[in-house]
Amino acid sequence: MSDQRRRCINDNCTSKPKSKLHPANKSMCNYYNVPHTPYRRVCGACLQKSIIYFDRIGRRFKNGKCILDDQYPIKLTSIIDLSDSDDGNAANNDAEPSTENLNDPQIAKLRTLINTTLKDTVGQLYKKQEELCQSYLMSEKAKIEAENEKLNNLTQQVDLAIGQLYNNLYKFDSQRRFEYDKEISIVEDLNNTDEDTVLSMTLPRLLDDIPKECKPIRHLLKLGDRVYGMKHSQMRPWFEATITCEFIDKIYCVKFDDETEKVLNYKNLAYIDAASQAQYPVGSRVIAKFQDVDIKLTDKFYVGIIAEPPKLLNNFRYMIFFDDGYVQYVCHKNIRLMCGESPDVSDDVHENIREFIKEYLQKYPERLMVKFKKKQVVRVELNNVWRLAKVKNLDASLVQLKFLDIKFERTEWIYRGSNRLGPIQDKLCSNNQDKRVRGTVLTDVNRLLNRPYIEIDNMTENEKSVDIDNSDNTQNPQENNGVIKLIQIPANCPKPHPYKHHECSHFCMLWVHYDYSQTKYMNVLNIPLHYGFMRSVLTDEKLKLKKVIYTTPCGRNIDNENEMYNYLKLTSYNNNQMPMDLFNFDCLVNPLSLLSVPEVFIRVQDISYEMEFKPISVFNSLNDLVPDHIKYITERKIGPGVNLNIDSKFLCGCDCIDDCEDKNKCSCWQLTYMGPKTYPAIFKDHDDIGYSFKRLHKQVITGIFECNASCKCKKTCLNRVVQEPLKTSLQLFLTEKKGWGVRTLADIPKGSFVCTYLGVVRTEKDADSDFPLNWGEYLADLDFLEKVEGIKDGYESYVVQSEDESEDHTSSSDDEEFNPSWAIKNKMNIIESRMLLRKNLQDTNTKIDGKHKLSKLNTQQKDVSKNTSLLRYLDRDCGIYTLDAKVSGNIGRYFNHSCDPNIFIQNVFIDTHDLRFPWVSYFALSNIPAGTELSWDYNYMIGSVKNKRLMCHCESKNCKGRLL
Ligand SMILES: C[S@@+](CC[C@H](N)C(=O)[O-])C[C@H]1O[C@@H](n2cnc3c(N)ncnc32)[C@H](O)[C@@H]1O
């Protein structure tokens, strides 16, 4: 109190400390924003300042001007509240009114009169002031609202810009992740010294070396012209000669430099100089220098045909198919044009390769070629015997193979599209021309198992670049397509308690009231965050490591799946346990990311009409279309003639009473393991097979057997994934060039189950009967058995390869431990294959002609190792069954194809163990950021449907250009 008496009420007072102080009334206290007490004091200067202000305000009041339209201090209540004004009192404090005056009735009357008059006048002024203030406040409010709107617009723009930035960042991030994946494979490549071509090792040729693409002119020959002539036969070298005589029909007599003379027609003569202006087109008849590094046969010209033009991919060299069966890359200066050729140039080539060349030129530029990596082993035909050879080197369309099973060392360059190669032969044998497309539901086993596999080189470089260029211009405007936002978890959701030391029990989770049935509209990774969990990404600055930590409702910090699983088990109550796929410990996955799209483009709220647990909206920002009507199903339907028994009595189940945690004890897990164990040379890492905490990181070609209706385990068991209702937040959207597609609204962690592919199970015959009307757009073959057969095919190659590494894996395949019926059948096939291999090994009788080693571009030999099929043992007559989703299907029918897919197919057995009827299920191949389209590799065989040509618009870096 005494302190208040000694200092000025203005905190910012600049007067000297000992300045004279005056009593401060309520208005002054208000002006300086301090509570009023009778002891407040104000210095002269500050008093003056406030008086000036009140004077100005008073004048405004008196003159009927708005008092708010001024630089007002923080509080004005006191001056507006006249009735409460203590100004008079303030005056009293300073100078006490004389009681004498008050008692005078005259003065009292006068005083009353003045008061009334004052009150009337002030009252009127007050009323006016009230109106003025009101309108002033209204206009201020309008101004603030306008300002607010401006700010809102600005915020929205900033939001959008941030969203776009985030999008780009995400794109970059996902690319980075992708590149990271690639990096790993590069490391593997290096270890294996794999290279796809030797192009990288050689310096690129100068483009100036290559003449322009125009037809070379064949000028007429005259006497004395120097030429190259066929001295002996098409298979032998050509030599320089001089035209000495000309007969009719372009027949000439030529004298070789060794004085021998020969009569040759113009198709057996070649110009002496390389064409300087023109590039030789594919199919041109030429002679070219053949270089054999091994036996030093250089500088000799042999006759052949141009098979590939010079281009970047082949380091600007021509690929030549020589008549003697050799193939080689040759640069322009070492090629001479023949003086003439037949209208169908294949008539001029040696009969050994005529058919091959004819077909090649007909189909060019579409070519089937085998994709190799160094050290891979492949079956190759040599002198009518199928042999094993190892990839030594690669050069664009050629592969150098070293034969393994012959006594002497032999290597040979072979065209990657030659039907002497086992994979090409297989493809030709199984080619279903003029039939519906065989959309296989499994990745090409060869590609998956790192074996040579067929690729189709069907585009010219120009075609490719046109396609890629176009794709860039056709991107949807980003805003229309939606932006990635980070969602907020509602503030009223339970938050983790601060941690206090305790033993966890169901009480730790009880209070958060977790109920999965209430999570329909939540993204799967968000669910724990709605029920008391917190997820944070911590950075260890020292180790430069990022780590995801979940804080549980009871405050415990958990940083790995094992611990989380134990926690969930320990704290579950009433069988209400959170499943493991609600959690993810990868810091590149953000559970809060969400694709936010403009509502106006949502055409249908749920394409499944609530048949799925999660709604699947339909988005279209390109036009007003909605998808054609189909019957949405959530279980496969059985078509005519299909005998599928899903009675659980026919299923083998496990006896586990836990969550089938111990994979060695659970008979269902063991069924899954059995397949890979049958092929030990291929599936080396047995610990890594199948689900891991409900995620699948690698395809199991031999199928996954989930726990089923006859098992004793709980529904929370870790071996139940595909049988659960849809969990991912998906959206059907119209793409620019591929029709409808599916994208994810939230981040999907690698290995997550996405959904199944459902349709009507039809017999192959039944499905083929709709052709060509139903050419296969929505068909997926249930070719599980065929693919398992594919693993077995060439299994010996791997055994041979591993023998190199002094490991005999064949013996372990005889392991008697696993013998359910289908594995026994597989084993029988392996034994048969081995017998075949021995037979092949006996025949090592190979010739070399001393100079130009025998070689062949093609073979007439049919694949001798095509052996029995598993299907044979199953005593079936229906061939492969197929899932037809054209009329009835689920969201799985809308996934488009990509040459760089982000989801893969897994065959899973749930309601039947009949191997012909797996559930076809999609899993995430990598972390998939929110907003990304989900696509798989259809594995269509290009050219397999007559008159059907589909360009691929997947726009991936590795796009092959054609879908069909
Ligand atoms: C199973 S459907 C996929 C859903 C389909 N987009 C729709 O609108 O119903 C397969 C068809 O989609 C189209 N498609 C899928 N992937 C494509 C791609 N990468 N490029 C071009 N078209 C594609 C082709 O028309 C193909 O026949």
Automatic annotation (TrEMBL):
Protein keywords: Chromatin regulator, Chromosome, Coiled coil, Metal-binding, Methyltransferase, Nucleus, Repeat, Repressor, S-adenosyl-L-methionine, Transcription, Transcription regulation, Transferase, Zinc
InterPro entries the record matches: DNA-bd_dom_sf, Methyl_CpG_DNA-bd, Post-SET_dom, Pre-SET_dom, SET_dom, SET_dom_sf, SETDB_methyltransferase, Tudor_4
Matching CDD domains: SET_SETDB1, Tudor_SF
Stretches that traverse the bilayer: none
Coiled-coil zones: 137-164
Domain Pre-SET span(s) in chain numbering: 652-725
Superkingdom as given in the UniProt entry: Eukaryota
Annotated SET domain residues: 728-939
Subcellular location: Chromosome; Nucleus
Example of a GO MF term: histone H3K9 methyltransferase activity
GO BP term, pick one: heterochromatin organization
Stretches assigned to the Post-SET domain: 948-964
Name of the protein in question: Histone-lysine N-methyltransferase eggless
Organism: Acyrthosiphon pisum (Pea aphid)
